[in-house]
Amino acid sequence: MNADDAHLLIVDDDERIRGLLQKFLMRSGFLVSSAKDAAHARRILSGLEFDLIVLDVMMPGEDGLSLCRDLRTQMTTPILLLTAKGETDDRITGLEAGADDYLAKPFEPKELLLRINAILRRVPAAEPVVATPKVLNLGPVRYDIERGEMWRGEELVRLTSTESQLMRIFSGVPSEPVTRAKLVEELSRSGGQTQERAVDVQITRLRRKIEEDPKQPRYLQTVRGAGYMLAPDQS
């Protein structure tokens, strides 16, 4: 993560320091919000997500350590504590409260910037959100994943219980082969005993409802040595 992506929250009861930090960090490329005390910070955090919180320890009312402990039970957002105390015991107390780092006042703004960037570099990048299709197109047939329904044009294709289970399994991992053993395991969870031979029979029957030519399957394929695979049309 870099500064262009990061939104910081500054929590400090000193208006002058709060303003200076906000201006400095904004000039360094961050998006910055600020709060004057713990209660104000809670209100902001209830509606916004942040990449890092810079939190002053010595504040009237609820102090930074108490706020840090409470926030750590609710979120994993990195927290950098600021304090006028620099003794080892105080640093340990801050880290035990759940802080990711600790910077004693007075400090050089550049050191704060370096520590913020170091914390952000340690934060793993968010996994890209992959849009999961709701409908799989299998030539003239379409399968509605959420409803568990198969349609050919405007006609509903009737599926047996086992065929519905197979489609649920295959649609969960489209274009990925599923072993016969895995299919047996999944089908057996609904009760009864399923044999690999019985799976082959059910696949044959399901192909008749999907394929134009079940003997040369295009969509419900046999993957040699790996099992069966549902290969929908690419959207």
SS-derived structural category: alpha/beta
Q: What series of H and E elements makes up the topology?
A: EHEHEHEHEHEEEEHHHEE
Query: Helix segment count?
Result: 8
Q: Outline the low-pLDDT stretches.
A: none
Largest beta sheet: strand ordering: 2-1-3-4-5
Strand content: 15-25%
Distance between the termini: 32 Å
Task: Give a count of the beta strands, DSSP E runs of length 2 or more.
Answer: 11
What would a concise description of this structure say?
This protein has 235 residues and is α/β, with parallel strands linked by helices. Helix content is 38%, strand content 20%.
Present the secondary structure layout:
Elements: E1 7-11, H1 15-27, E2 31-35, H2 38-45, E3 52-56, H3 64-72, E4 79-83, H4 88-96, E5 101-104, H5 109-122, E6 135-138, E7 141-144, E8 149-152, E9 155-157, H6 161-172, H7 180-188, H8 196-210, E10 220-223, E11 227-230
Parallel strand pairs: 1-2, 1-3, 3-4, 4-5
Antiparallel strand pairs: 6-7, 7-8, 8-9, 10-11
Descriptive notes:
Helices cover about 40% and strands about 20% of the residues. With about 240 residues, it is an alpha/beta fold. The strands form three sheets. A five-stranded parallel β-sheet has the order 2-1-3-4-5, with helices on both faces. The chain has a four-stranded antiparallel β-sheet with strand order 6-7-8-9, covered by helices on one side. The protein is elongated.
Give the key terms.
single chain; 235 residues; alpha/beta; four-stranded antiparallel beta sheet; 8 helices; 38% helix; elongated
